[in-house]
Amino acid sequence: MEGLCGLEVLLLWAGIITLANCQITTTAGQQITASSPLQCSYTVTPIRFGLQIDITSSTPGHYSININEEGRPGTGRPITVQQSNQKSSYEIKHLKPCTDYEHSVTYRNRAGEEKTCSYTEKKTRTTEISKDDIEDVSCLPGHVCYRSDWDISSSLSTPNRNPSVRCDNKTFCVKPGYDDICSDFTTSFTSENCHNVFSRTTNIPVERGRVSESKLVSELEPFTDYSCIGQIKNNTDTIQNTTAVHVRIDCDTQE
To answer: What 3-state class would DSSP assign to 228?
Structure first.
């Protein structure tokens, strides 16, 4: 038999076929070129807001990219891609800054067989966050909101440790406390492994609200005590007794 490569011999009634990574010839004189073995490797490069995955020396087909914070498999973000070329690049953004991410790339063929692509490192750290990476936006009434292509969910810090809430996938908001009204509200941005720490300062104005009850001067009754209490509406909450003015109308007549 011509073209024997010595890897595997398959006996068939029609003849003997040798499967190998080369061109072979059956006993009937038919030439067959066996498929090449699966090649799969990748590299990871930190970029702004995340990581770039380059799949190289690969067989075209379906690939699964998985990225999670080191030691936290539950934060995994599996992404399935269809690769038609031997080399393709994929950007995974909205990750946390200065954070170690574990990663893997897996190839799956039509038969459901999987192969883990090779790479020298199993984790990569994202880059530092900068002040220009964060934008002040209006999203929730009564809140101070920030938008970023980074995941800043664990990077916000306020003096009173006000909890942050998500407005959308890229926007986080902090609700100032009563003591922050009519003052400068400062939010710091930091991460456990980041070296740069910076802050944003926003002045919290008095918000206009409806009074609970109003009376004209002509409607006031004589010899009656009235209190005019200033109120500040902050979203659905009300701060009362900020300023109290007592009004009493006395007439010349006797009670």
So the answer is: strand
Residue carrying the six token digits 């909450």: 237
Task: Note the pLDDT of residue 113.
Answer: 81
How far apart are alpha carbons 106 and 104 in whole angstroms?
Answer: 7
SS3 helix, strand, coil % of the chain, rounded to 5? 5, 45, 50
Q: Which domains does the chain have, with CATH numbers?
A: 1-37 (no CATH), 41-125 (2.60.40.10), 131-204 (2.60.40), 209-255 (no CATH)
Q: Is 244 helix (H, G, I), strand (E, B) or coil?
A: strand
What Cα–Cα distance (Å) separates residue 1 from each residue in 8, 9, 28, 29? Answer: 13, 11, 10, 9
Q: Are 196 and 130 in contact (CB under 8 A)?
A: yes
Strand-pair category, 31-33 with 23-25 = antiparallel
Whole-model pTM: value is 0.64
| Predicted confidence (pLDDT) per residue in 180-235, tens digit | 767 788 888 887 788 888 888 887 765 644 445 566 666 666 666 666 655 555 55
Most confident of 31-35, 58-62, 86-90, 110-114: 86-90
Q: Find out whether 46 and 126 touch, Cβ atoms under 8 Å.
A: yes
User: Which residue, 141, 155, 149, is CA-closest to 199?
Assistant: 155
Pick from 53, 174, 158: nearest CA to 103: 53
Half-sphere exposure of 171 (CA within 13 A, CB side): 12
